[in-house]
Amino acid sequence: MRALVAYRELPPAEVDKFVAARLTRQQLLVNPAHRFTQITTEGALGWRAGTPEDMAEQVEHIAATMRLPNVQVGIVPWGTRAHVFPLHGWDLHDQRAVIYGTAEATAILTEPQDVARYVQLTKAVEQITLWNDEATAVLERIANEYRTRCHDDKEHP
Fold first, then answer.
1. How far apart are CA 106 and CA 72, in angstroms?
2. Which of 35, 57, 93, 155 has the most CB within a 10 Å radius?
């Protein structure tokens, strides 16, 4: 989590605040009243924010969340033929609102036609996404690749 904001050179207290806020939000994952669906690309998981060991643990953490009954994680594998190319990520909230952020601001869309566009975009991305055991297999492979790199890094500093 600290690596996500390291480039911003924030004071340590601000970084601590950021980490605390993310940890608090993660607690929602175990609340059965909330449902979460997360889709990511395999390529995004290749962006190394820490050591290979850190990344292996992070990927394994993602896989572990998939075992929660209210959480779905989907992976768009590398090389997937795509017919839709989202320009940014977004959060879809019960087909009532869409939230997306940029480096400068956060947008909250609530107009039905705007939300409907993101509902369609979400459905299109879901069609090229691997779920359940297939997604878990991709995550396990990625974690193993990072673990192999941990070994390689130790041999070749």
1. 24
2. 57
Q: At what angle do helices 52-65 and 132-155 cross, to 10 degrees?
A: 170
pTM of the predicted protein model: 0.81
Contact indicator for 42, 142 with CB cutoff of 8 Å: yes
Using an 8 Å Cβ cutoff, are 129 and 67 in contact? Answer: no
CB distance 67 to 30 below 8 Å: no
> How far, in Å, are 4, 12, 36, 92, 105 from residue 9 at the CA level?
11, 9, 31, 31, 19
Which two structure tokens, joined as six digits, stand for 2?
């600290």
